[in-house]
């Protein structure tokens, strides 16, 4: 049996559910918003996890759940907890349930898309860039610093420079304009990540096991971050990656332990691809809706394959 | 600087290790604490030529990842939090994530061997939830206390206490077994099979340096009851220092 975790109306989860219905693959759903109707009994010993999860009154032995797709939202922000005091038993129970599920997902022997422990590299972009480079993909020239003089030298060397957070928090990409350059002293307060701007176009690559779906994104004025560009001007089209590059993406995702990954490439004017980052929980539905690429079907198939 | 010991401000085992490693010939060696890193100037590059980090410390000291031959890494949390204590909570958390992300990448950029190598969950590497330690112990051929989700917490009508209480107790005093770069030190004698088990556990945990607490239930064999990537190294004495020195690339006499 496959376990789906998250909010059922969220597009990535809803699409996979539809595809599993088409495949007639057995699945159960943990709807986070119905946490009051869920329970977990878990023991983890040297021989692995045992126990059961109760969903909507039905008990499922944990050993019967062979594949899991996880799209958890932060359980502390669930609307059902609005107005609950910070120390309320209901809030604590919800937290404990989610924590227990996450602990189980880390040690359960089946296929998990994706395990928390494998998603962590995305929390440090330069760290992930080092890992990416280790798999043979080019990464943009990057500087993280709290020294204005170092930024000055970096901009002098690279010309157009963008900046963004070092971690995955507040991760919006902006170009370092002359106006912002003038208040560079602010970097002394907290290190900032700067990158040489790579002229060209964006490619989002979704890898699911060995399958690869690549989408070319053309945005107006070579937007520094197409996710935040005016979507009227953004065009998405399916493309086929060169064999070698597709293989590198698969190896990268597998090397990071990711069953499903969203890899952001930037293809320069020389045709060479630069890898910007790897998203371990890609919101693929946007790409599927705009290109018709069967990403959810591949994901459902990947889960069904593991559930036997 | 050739070698560095990284630790929290109050880590007597780190200070002991720094002095001992110097005495074994690992010179020059700096002991750098979180407090030293508070006011550091960072320059961290990643690109086609690899990664390199230069950290300018107050007082003129300088860490250069490209020429660091080895690091004993006991950093628990990202530096730079004390000076940001007055920030609003959201900004403080943002700064925490940013500093952690930079420190992780810096430690990964060190050219020489880092013990323990960092990972996204812990700057000093080798951090695992008790449930994971139990499974890792099993894979290494060692016994472990089971970790239980407090059943009443997650079942309908429960009292709502937090998960995992009661069975495991990490971070509690000096350890029963310490693994350091392939050498195993223990309070009680261990048979060779068990020694190999601890070596395997350290490898599986990604923690070449680790400490373990044991407990015996109802007179049974000792079982893993807790683990840490920052053990009190002093228990291993000079032999442990020699193991570390060798692993960090020193020429131990």
Question: How would you explain this protein's 3D organization?
Answer:
The complex is a heterodimer of chains A (308) and B (253). Chain A has 308 residues and is α+β, with helices and mostly antiparallel strands. Chain A has nine helices and 16 strands. The longest helix of chain A has 19 residues. Helix content of chain B is 30%, strand content 24%. In chain B, the strands form three sheets. Chain B has a four-stranded parallel β-sheet. In chain B, strands 10-9-11-12 form a four-stranded antiparallel β-sheet. At the A-B interface, strand 3, strand 4, helix 2, helix 4 and strand 8 of A face strand 3, helix 3, helix 4, strand 8 and helix 5 of B. Strand 3 of chain A pairs antiparallel with strand 8 of chain B, so a sheet runs across the interface.
Features:
heterodimer; A: 308 residues; alpha+beta; five-stranded antiparallel beta sheet; four-stranded parallel beta sheet; 9 helices; 16 strands; 31% helix; 29% strand; B: 253 residues; alpha/beta; four-stranded antiparallel beta sheet; globular
